[in-house]
Amino acid sequence: MYTIIDIETTGNGIKGNKITEIAIFKFDGERIIEEYTSLVNPECEIPYFITGLTGIDNAMVRDAPTLDEIASKILEITKDSIFVAHSVNFDYNVIKNELKTLGIDFIRKKLCTVRLSRKLFPGYHSYSLGKLCAALNIPLKDRHRAKGDAQATVLLFQKLLQVEGAATVFKSFLNARSQETTLPPSLPKAIYDKLPEEPGIYYFKDEKGRIIYIGKAKNIKKRVLSHFYDKATKEISLCNETAHIDYELSGNELLALLMESTAIKHHYPKFNRAQKKTAQAYGIFSYEDRRGIKHIAFNKVKAIPNPLVTMYNQADCRSYLEELCIAFALCPKYCHLQENVAACSHFRINDCKGICRDTETITSYNSRVVEALEAMETKEENYLIKEKGRDALEDAFIWIQNGMYCGYGFIDKQTTIGSFADIEPFRTAQKDTLDTQRILRSYMLKNPEKLVPLKGAIPNFQTPDTLSMFSF
Question: Which residue numbers are catalytic?
Fold first, then answer.
């Protein structure tokens, strides 16, 4: 038994969406055995653009029953049946969320006529209800009204049932282990099946081939699937528009982060929010207090005239200061890792020589602070970072020159490298941005052993597990 359903809503996202009209046709595979259609009072204003689309306005629903009043009817007519709709996840999730607010759990098996049509009627340019009905000569009256759309979906469903091999397809879609009902309605399962379980970036595209979202992952296939299970309004809207997915392998997470940042800024996808805004910059600086003790601290760049080092989040600033404390035996209190304490007691840093307890002279402590400041100013700014390649036969490298991200590349492990000129042909030039600086700064703080200074030395890409240095 099937219940073929269509709803009209206020259009305020999945969780904020309120039903304004519902139509349910109980269908036994051959004929309609019961029908229920009703306007619904959403108990909120209907936006003008929704009224323009559906024709349903506030006056029409003012005296209509509320969802609470018709919930028992929805439960009764859909009991022991399979929930069917065109783009089923939208209708199902709106009803499920609406009933949940009333303290009612709503769980039904479901089938999507978009996905079924893609499988049983392949080759159409569009699988929207209007265009599919036109292509299949299915009458569609009262478009964007619940009853009209539901009646057309019943006729479409009848045609699907009659296609040769339909029983096998229906059974596979209803299989509890099947991903068909989880995937976006317009995304062919074959596209998802081809996604690799490797690091890289992925592109969600709509039916016109426009990139609408870009993400990165250690495991592309697993990360993409997580979007489909996410019930957040943004994720459901994203999935409803997704018709294709492309990807690029990176071989490692660092390069995936860099590739993602560059791709977002180039394509500016509608569903990407992160990295569109300018990152807040923070600066490391030094000052001397009334006692003559030199401090190292961080603050927003706009409050610092000449920062010694610029970073793009507070966590990186704190990590950087922790490394300085460890390298130069500095005090966490005077590096502002611990505030409002009489003496330092940092969980990670325990080699303070006592400046905070008055057991070390100010002159002695300040001398080490000066050494740290000099190291910050003269620290090597030209690096290659060696990382895993896209397969076992290659390595990846990231090029940083004069403190700027200059690009990345992949190189065969059997290639002999004798100078930087030998690496240059493999480099894909990239633009340095605040976000790439933030990504690389965080990585370098956590993985200093993978940085190879460019002055007078290069990494040996022939040896996968070691970095041999060659002077030239």
Answer: 144
